[in-house]
Records
---
Amino acid sequence: NAGVTQTPKFQVLKTGQSMTLQCAQDMNHNSMYWYRQDPGMGLRLIYYSASEGTTDKGEVPNGYNVSRLNKREFSLRLESAAPSQTSVYFCASSALAGPTGELFFGEGSRLTVL
Amino acid sequence: QKEVEQDPGPLSVPEGAIVSLNCTYSNSAFQYFMWYRQYSRKGPELLMYTYSSGNKEDGRFTAQVDKSSKYISLFIRDSQPSDSATYLCAMSVGGGSNYKLTFGKGTLLTVNP
């Protein structure tokens, strides 16, 4: 019962470095999401993909890019990391992008940018 | 005013207590209301889901929605140490490309044995 798998779980970067967070789900879900969670800010949507082949910006997309590689995989890329991107990143998936679509979250990727 | 307001706590109660967690919201278009539970260093998981106003009960948990007051609550009866977690309210409206889901900041709950 893997559900949503995120890699890596921990990462330390220097300012200006790039990296990609990987996410895969095995529930045959159509929709996938990337959130960041910061103390005092709650969960904020970065990007989402309502279905394979589509991606859309969320609330805080600046500094990030995404790729919906196939139905299972949705990656998040930081091209030039900044200290403000230090956060816990969560990938989530749902059967559909709608009010009845329960989100299933991964365990998170903890990123520190020095 | 933020769309969803949630007191971050922390809230500390003794085992067996009744816990009340609350959120207020400003967007009257919200139709679907959820509570997610997040254990330390884990991702959130859906706890309860309600549509429109009214109550919904699931074991020791009761979710309550008052759309006229734009106020939702989660009650936990006979709280247990295993209930210690952060509870996030979430609200949504629309569907497809118009779908919008907004989370509260979460309330950290500790139940002491």
---
Amino acid sequence: GAVVSQHPSWVICKSGTSVKIECRSLDFQATTMFWYRQFPKQSLMLMATSNEGSKATYEQGVEKDKFLINHASLTLSTLTVTSAHPEDSSFYICSARDQAGGYNQPQHFGDGTRLSIL
Amino acid sequence: QKEVEQNSGPLSVPEGAIASLNCTYSDRGSQSFFWYRQYSGKSPELIMFIYSNGDKEDGRFTAQLNKASQYVSLLIRDSQPSDSATYLCAVLTDSWGKLQFGSGTQVVVTP
């Protein structure tokens, strides 16, 4: 149980392109999903918390107009990197929590999306 | 600023030995703790969670929690080369499920 699917796994595109990444909870409903970014040999960095039906909460220093997050259903959240540039190249990972079972539920991670901007 | 601290390692462990990983946290009110394993180039995967003081065992893994001393640890028994990875300690920080992660401890199991 608690499977999170993230698509695509790899994206290579030209500078200036917008890229959409999908995160789906396959066997549970997720009121809250999270988006992280990780540069090589560095720690996970939380970008934003995505709540179903409401605006995402962005961490300090993350540009909300650059990284658009939509959480339209209990099983799907999307991250769109708008007008991507080479410095946006990174490993983007989503996670989701099963809303059943209460406060202590862990986050379950998708497989991540490796984004390369040329 | 809530902090979660881990020794970055690498922690070198002979195959078959016990790997011991430690994590300390700053928020005395923290209630829920998680251990994730992350292989190089992959996303984190949940190994264990622990909420109550004491030990919790799952297969070769044992999590230990001491809220009074504000530390949580992970023991890996009979370490295997496939256990070579970075282990992330995480502390639940709010009701939405936001986690504060440590920087991770790299474990290298040598045959």
